[in-house]
Amino acid sequence: MGTAVREKTAIVGIGATEFSQNCGRSELRMALEAILDAVEDAGIKVEDIDGMVNYTLDTADQIEVVRSLGIPNLSFFNKVPYGGGASCGTIAQAVAAIEAGLATTVVCYRSIRDASGPVTYGDFEPTRVAGDTYMGMYHPYGLLTPVAWVAMFAQRYIHKYGVKDGQFAPVSLVNRENANRNPNAIFHNRTLSLEEYNNSPINVAPLRRHDCCLSTDGAVAIIVTTADRARHLKQKPAYISGVAQGMSTNGEVMTSYTREDIATLPEVEEYGKKLFEMARITPKDINVAQFYDAFSPLVPLQLEALGFVGRGEGVDYIEGGHRIRRDGELPINTSGGLMSEGYIHGMNLIAEGVRQVRGTSTTQIDDVEYSLVTGGLGVPSSGLILRRG
Fold first, then answer.
1. In this structure, is residue 149 part of a structural domain?
2. Tell me, what's the pLDDT at 125?
3. Which residues contact 197 (CB under 8 A, 6 or more apart)?
4. What single DSSP character describes residue 212?
5. Which of 277, 343, 307 is nearest to 110 (CA)?
6. Helix, strand or coil, per DSSP, at residue 86
7. In a domain, 338, yes or no
8. Which residues form the domain of 298?
């Protein structure tokens, strides 16, 4: 996809369940609720949906969603792998399908019970070592979880650029400030001080508890259709100016330690070039950003990879939090992000990106024209630029 598809499609509906740590129902049930909420938001009918994209990790199977909602027919359906890297990738698949004439109205969704779901081996699954060659290189040394995997990248970044203890704190603090204004955020009623951040326990060095995202139950659905149709629907369209995916060579799933430089995000650098080229803008034109914030060091790394600052300058940019707060140069994660709103593998960041161009966020930025959203890091990833309708 290139500039030929720029703003030919738009997001017209967003829907979600509540975000909690004990939802009391199945992932399928939550997916249905979120999709119906998005349908209502868009002002369309369930019968209008003819395309569907979700994550390979979803247990809410497409065929059961179609059966439960009574969707008459899907002419396009697909799934995107790599966890949070799939978030904006679902939108890319929807855009491609609509532009190819394979569908007219596509729903993208993610439903997850990360907090209350059944206990499984998860990342410890012994058979995964046999299936993923690289896992056999790291599990024996205790690198068993995402926080451990990302901690390795963070340590290298700290060493290479002389980052001092506590310099990632502004990401956590700004996210929490934004969540405190968002009644739907898990941490809406819980503030975070620098003292509490500094005193929080180390999960895996150098990452503290408050450097890490939440475990969350919830679902989010996004509806994409043609720009022509979007102009006649209920909501102000969020035009898709740019959307791209990136998978770089010599990569693994969160353990790409054999690359020449593990203090960078090559997938993000590559999709970022295509993203801004498609939208015909530069990073300076972005008014607000929803950065995938599974762990706080990933925000300065993304600032560098996407060209907002030079390499090694991301931590200086976030210092004090002034530039990334709601009245700063580049406000970020205005709903609270994955660290303080909820962790729905990035789909909630897309919903917040839409709210910003609609003008309906609980931390609304003035006069937003372009809103950036990014997908999961350390895996094949994706990004999205939305323009005000």
1. no
2. 56
3. 166, 169, 172, 173, 208, 210
4. B
5. 343
6. helix
7. yes
8. 3-117+213-388
Structure-block tokens of residue 46? 């369930």
Question: Residue 24 carries which side chain, given as an amino acid letter?
Answer: G
Nearest to 200 by CA among 339, 378, 324: 339
Q: Is the pTM of this model over 0.85?
A: yes
Return all residues near 67 (Cβ < 8 A) that are at least 6 apart.
Answer: none
Residues acting as catalytic residues:
292, 343
Q: Which residues does residue 13 pair with via DSSP β-bridges, in sequence order?
A: 223
Q: Give the number of domains in the chain.
A: 1
Domain assignment present for 273: yes
Nearest to 36 by CA among 26, 27, 45, 28: 45
Strands 76-80 and 207-208: unpaired
User: 186 and 20 in contact (C-beta within 8 Å)?
Assistant: yes
- Give the CATH number of the domain where residue 363 resides: 3.40.47.10
CB 104 within 8 Å of CB 229:
yes
159 within domain boundaries: no
Confidence label for 138 from pLDDT (cuts 50, 70 and 90): confident
Distance CA 209, CA 137 (A): 26
Q: Are 258 and 117 in contact (CB under 8 A)?
A: no
The region of weakest confidence among 118-127, 207-216, 232-241, 256-265 is 118-127
H/E segment holding residue 81: none
Per DSSP, the chain holds a count of helices (H) and strands (E) of 14, 11
